[in-house]
């Protein structure tokens, strides 16, 4: 029995400094619990967060002086266990910025901008990740009562799909390019990065060079599937087809294409633009990949 009492006294002696620091007069080391739930409904009303977002990178700032408090990441397994964040903060007000899907094709610079890694290293940009953005202000009361908040996400990317048909048979040789006749795709005048207010840059502009792959079902066609940062319906973006590294084969205005085919991007979370570029002996035509007119027939 004496051993039990001695053990109990020793345990209390160890615990008392912590109890004194948080439960009694001195509460400087105390933090309150914030339960933050993530949600993304896209262009509907049903939560599709699990289908679209596999990782969340969360940045916490003081709402008083905008000083950086900390960063934490939640991977797929953590989000499967709980679609949100369980964080502990000192009393005060905070701004929390959440980025969905900062994966291998996105990088954060100085907690201010998000861009493709190639942009920061001066290389050609092939794509971005399918980015999503959320922002919420939370408050931890002096009473340290637990608080629950909801962080709604919005889309921070546009899905692009481009298909090129007939170029193998229709292209004429270009003098001086016989040894470099590879086909390439370019998308100009795109925002190079997006800031932590989810506003794409209007001053730092870049060109994307998405990867073209041979269509496994049609070896004479090429396809590109990639993501860009958000852009407006009325824009200065040009889509270009190059042969080799110097010969411009064809280019057209993306804004004109969107207008002609009535494809909106602004106000659409899951915005997707599908373009078919077909080369023939009479020239090159551009149309909506998803709205190609097909004449029904019988075999």
The number of distinct β-strands equals: 19
**Number of continuous helical runs:** 6
Biggest sheet overview: 7 strands, mixed
Strand order of the biggest β-sheet: 3-2-5-8-9-1-4
Instruction: Please indicate the count of domains.
Output: 2
CATH topology name of the largest domain, in short, is Immunoglobulin-like
In CATH, the architecture of the largest domain is Sandwich
Radius of gyration: 27 Å
Measured as a percent range, the helix fraction is 10-25%
CATH class of the largest domain: Mainly Beta
Shape, principal axes of CA atoms: elongated
Q: Which band does the percent of strand residues land in?
A: 35-45%
Mean pLDDT reading? 86
- Tell me the distance between the termini: 94 Å
Helix-strand string = HEHEEHEEEEHEEEHEEEEEEEHEE
């Amino acid at each position: 029995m004496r051993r039990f009492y001695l053990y109990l006294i020793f345990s209390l002696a160890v615990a008392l400094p912590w109890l004194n620091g948080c439960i009694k007069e001195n509460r400087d080391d105390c933090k309150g619990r914030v339960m933050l739930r993530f949600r993304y409904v896209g262009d509907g009303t049903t939560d599709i967060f699990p289908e679209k977002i596999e990782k969340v990178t969360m940045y916490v700032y003081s709402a008083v002086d905008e000083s950086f408090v900390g960063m934490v990441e939640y991977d797929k397994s953590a989000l499967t266990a709980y679609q949100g964040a369980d964080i502990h903060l000192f009393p005060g007000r905070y701004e929390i910025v959440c980025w969905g899907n900062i994966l291998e094709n996105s990088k954060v610079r100085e907690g201010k901008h998000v861009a493709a890694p190639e942009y920061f290293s001066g290389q050609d940009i092939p794509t971005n990740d399918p980015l999503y953005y959320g922002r919420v202000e939370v408050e931890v009361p002096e009473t340290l009562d637990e608080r629950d908040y909801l962080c709604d996400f919005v889309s921070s990317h546009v899905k692009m799909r481009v298909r090129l048909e007939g170029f193998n048979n229709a292209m004429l040789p270009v003098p001086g390019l016989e040894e470099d006749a590879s086909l390439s795709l370019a998308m100009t005048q795109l925002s190079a990065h997006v800031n932590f207010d989810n506003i794409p840059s209007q001053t730092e502009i870049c060109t994307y060079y998405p990867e073209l792959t041979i269509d496994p079902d049609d070896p004479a066609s090429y396809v590109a599937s990639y993501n860009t940062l958000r852009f407006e319906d009325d824009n200065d973006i040009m889509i270009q087809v190059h042969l080799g590294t110097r010969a411009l084969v064809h280019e057209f205005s993306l804004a004109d294409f969107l207008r002609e085919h009535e494809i909106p991007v602004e106000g659409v979370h899951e915005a997707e633009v599908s373009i078919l570029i077909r080369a023939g002996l009479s020239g090159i035509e551009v149309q909506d990949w998803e709205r190609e007119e097909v004449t029904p027939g019988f075999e």
